[in-house]
Q: What sequence folds into this?
């Protein structure tokens, strides 16, 4: 119990940083999404995924910076700076005083309960995907020529399902209705999803973006999904050697696949997600813009500054806490 009491201020700081960085991220989500529209789909996908992960990563780095003085003081006692903080809220693992107990405990409990609840809601999809896979293996058969599971159902179905070991799932109805050219495009597109592990990536993105405001989160996840689908469209175009053929296949299968159920969050399919935007992109020359390295440098610089100036980060957060806990 004493350890929990000592850790409570740090947990409160970590939660506050996570939500605070999420709010800041929400304020710039729209310009980030719009500013990356002209990039290559792969570069845009990497950048949007990294942007969605920023609140958690920056909160983790800032919390580490807050912990470092206590860790270093435990190794070298002469670095202990707590005597400087008489009458001032400070964050120390060895002899804490400040925001522990009282109403801060209720804030921390409410925040952690919210976080566990929303993570639990997202994890419900795991059970749904497992039930789908069990049904597929029980009712379908493996086709080695297609490298896919084939279900004996009339409804057109074409998707990739699974997280760590995704599999391609087709229905008899889809195979009977698709032309040879459409089937080739569909297989190339779905194999790209398998190689990219898009089902797992989309699920992780949903977890990483929980601190964003709902509207900003929906905008970011929608743009991330579109970038992933366009990346697979480009892979299919490279495989068949004809961008127009991929666009025609998307248009032909948009209505056909519109009613197909998908088990969130580990399923990704050929359509009908954002088909007009994807067709428009396929009718243009492929974009090769990739400024994602600049974003990587910005994040590395922020991380380096945060850890290099850990004493400054530590003291600034203590000053903020002193306003709430005088």
A:
């Amino acid at each position: 119990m004493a350890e929990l009491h000592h850790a409570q201020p740090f947990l409160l700081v970590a939660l506050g940083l996570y939500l605070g960085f999420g709010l800041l991220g929400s304020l710039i989500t729209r310009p980030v999404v719009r500013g990356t529209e002209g990039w290559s789909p792969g570069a845009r996908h990497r950048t949007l995924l990294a942007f969605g992960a920023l609140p958690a990563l920056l909160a983790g780095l800032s919390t580490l910076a807050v912990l470092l003085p206590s860790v270093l003081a435990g190794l070298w006692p002469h670095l202990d700076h707590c005597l400087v903080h008489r009458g001032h809220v400070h964050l120390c693992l060895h002899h804490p005083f400040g925001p522990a107990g009282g109403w801060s405990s209720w804030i921390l409990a409410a925040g952690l309960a919210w976080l566990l609840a929303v993570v639990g809601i997202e994890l419900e999809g795991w059970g749904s995907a497992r039930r789908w896979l069990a049904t597929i293996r029980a009712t379908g058969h493996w086709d080695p020529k297609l490298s896919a599971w084939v279900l004996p159902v009339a409804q057109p179905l074409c998707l990739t399902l699974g997280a760590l070991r995704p599999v391609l799932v087709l229905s008899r109805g889809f195979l009977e209705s698709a032309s040879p050219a459409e089937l080739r495009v569909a297989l190339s597109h779905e194999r790209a999803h398998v190689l990219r592990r898009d089902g797992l990536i989309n699920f992780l993105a949903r977890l990483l973006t929980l601190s964003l405001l709902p509207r900003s989160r929906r905008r970011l996840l929608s743009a991330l999904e579109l970038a992933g689908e366009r990346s697979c469209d480009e892979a299919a175009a490279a495989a068949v050697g004809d961008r127009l053929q991929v666009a025609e296949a998307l248009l032909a299968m948009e209505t056909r696949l519109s009613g197909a159920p998908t088990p969130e969050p580990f399923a990704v399919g050929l359509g009908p997600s954002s088909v007009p935007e994807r067709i428009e992109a396929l009718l243009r020359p492929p974009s090769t813009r990739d400024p994602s390295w600049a974003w990587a440098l910005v994040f590395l610089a922020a991380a380096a500054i945060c850890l290099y100036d850990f004493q400054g980060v530590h003291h600034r957060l203590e000053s903020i806490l002193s306003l709430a806990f005088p």
